[in-house]
Amino acid sequence: MDAGIVSSTAPSSAAVTTPRHAARPVAGRLDGVRGVLPAACVIIVALVLGARSSTHFLDAGALLLHTGRYVEIGLLALALTIVIINGDIDLSVASNVAVSAAVLAIAYRGGAPIAVACMLAVLTGLVLGLVNGVLVAVIGLPSLVATLGTLAAYRGISEILLGSDYIGDFPDSFAEADRVTLFGTSAQRPLPLPLVVLLLTAAAFGFLLQRTNFGLRCLLTGSNSAATRFSGISTWRVRLQAFALSGMMAGAAAVLIASRLSSVSAGIATGMELPAITVVVLGGTSIFGGRGSILGTVVALFAVMAVREALAINNVQGETQDAVIGLILIASILVPRTVTRLRSRLVRRRVHT
Amino acid sequence: MSGHWKRLGRFTIVATLALAAASCSSDDDKGATTTASSTTTAAPSESTSAASTVDTTVASSTAASTDTTADAPSGETLQVVYIPKDTSNAYFNPILEGMQQEAAGLNMEVTEVGPASAEASSQIEFIDAAIQQGVDAIAISPNDPETVVPSLKRAMEAGITVIAVNSDMNPEGRQIAILPVDFSKMSDFLLKLTTDVTGGAGDFAILSATVNAPDQSAWIDGVNEALDAGKAPDLKLVDTVFGDDDADKSASETEALLTSYPDLKAILAPTAAGLPAVAQVLSNSSQKGKVQVTGLALPNSMKSFVEDGTVKEFGLWDPKTEGVVAAHLIAGLIDGSITAKAGSFDVPGLGSREINADTQVIADEFLVFDADNIADFDF
Lengths: 353, 379
Fold this sequence. Notes:
The complex is a heterodimer of chains A (353) and B (379). Chain A is built from 16 helices and two strands. The longest helix of chain A has 35 residues, at 318-352. Chain A has helices spanning 3-7, 12-17, 20-34, 36-53, 60-66, 68-85, 93-109, 114-138, 143-162, 193-211, 213-223, 225-230, 235-261, 273-282, 294-313, 318-352; strands spanning 181-182, 191-192. Chain B is 43% helix and 18% strand. In chain B, the strands form four sheets. Chain B has a six-stranded parallel beta sheet, with helices on both faces. Chain B has a four-stranded parallel beta sheet with strand order 7-6-8-9, sandwiched between helices. Chains A and B meet through helix 2, helix 3, helix 4, helix 5 and helix 13 of A and helix 1, helix 3, helix 4 and helix 6 of B.
């Protein structure tokens, strides 16, 4: 599914012997596989604990159906991986979903065919993403502040567009697409449509990051923006493109969420940026940029899902679940940092003796 | 950069093996895998294939538990999940209390689980988990009338009894809805509160929620109609202002009312977020006692103002009654003595309750809180 698997066979000693900074972009590609390990660990712990605490937990059919709730987070996280590799952040993704979903619903209510409404949603997401990109990459605002601003602004727009309305009554062909399953026999179709969408999109993003010049430029931009600029790569364009991608995926997530809920309201997708960013960072992508992998993001998505599902089956209250996700976010930044520091201290000691 | 990942990797593998070993040691019947494959979907899942050893362990216990439920369906304790709008709002505690009070006598076990925020889609994962657990019934106070409908439809398809408690929703998503009171009588109730505190004569003003809050707008229209019809001939509504359910805005609007209308006898605030703010302003004002305050609010938010004499009485209802009715309704729907169509049923201790044409049940009458009874309520 991901080119990262292939490159994992490359000798890791090469990365160790070459100077760290020079190796970074290459290491970025290699880290794909190692970055998966913490998330894989989380999956296994969550599955074991979930299974030991509830006999109902390991129900493959139920868990597969529940992936619908996480696919939207996954789509946001895939594009966020690129944004974060660039050294930026996009906090506005969930609010962007809300505006895109509002446009979809209003266009449909206004008489547009549902397919056109969906395209308008993706287009809206793209435009809002470009706005972020212009603010950050062209004007030069810090992405943290700029997208915190658009987080509030976009949510405000969705509230202005929808007020206290619920727009629903979508056609049957569109509503509840997360119930549509594919492959297998007519009685047993194991794969829900959104999951297939996610895996295909992930493959595309994996290709984009690992096998295209754009991907290489992102890794370079994130590891050393100034050096990359001096070597003739227009880093602003790379960053703008990443924000545009992020917006487009928000539009796509809006289509899926509108379909899954069969209705759209102004508060849709509130707080979805937290799990999306958690997934990216837990997947081994460095929050400081320059390093990351799509495979890691995908595995981390299933890790977050496994944790939430294990907590939910045990009737753990929502606030505790949110706290656990927040702690995982902190831990996934803290643990690699601490390990790196301990290691460098050990190395230094070895040099001194 | 690569070295520490390698170490982390090694740790991960060790930890994984340790956990897998721990789970396997509790499993002594590997033969159960074959029976289990029929109960769980034979679907290749990323998660289960990643930990096939774990799958074996648990699949066997799943099979075992399925057997026991199949053997004795009638004697089983009914498993009921109550999902409030959010778990931080004390209003929903009495509903759970009411359900749990009746649960013992109905061979029922009620668990409450819910989201941290009242965001519309945040209840869905708890519905999905309840379906996965195979509970007998879900009682839900829906955060909005539409978003949870697809999930609840799935619950009903799985044979789970679903009722809405405290607010109704799209009827496709529930069998019966329990409403706390007959909201069509709200305007009369508000006028009664105002009459009580003013003695039935004088100027009064209304502080509402927002300009287009649908419930409040309808109630205030009703109050106006009742006044026009001469139901309280000596009361005069001089102004209606909006606090936007925000404490600061409500407070400044209250201060403006006190300045603009020196003869004001009462402020009526039919919003639980607005009334405490109005009472707060008056409890610190020289007008305290001269201008009466009443309306709708949760008793806990008003206790201090009733104690210090700012507020004589205000109203709401007792959510606990909804819980009591809910428990009996669920038991009746499951044993077949109640069906989800117009009719009536008996709630021991409360009397008969009617199911109207919209398959709604009204749980109780309005309740007036004053210095004598407010200590009895905690929500």
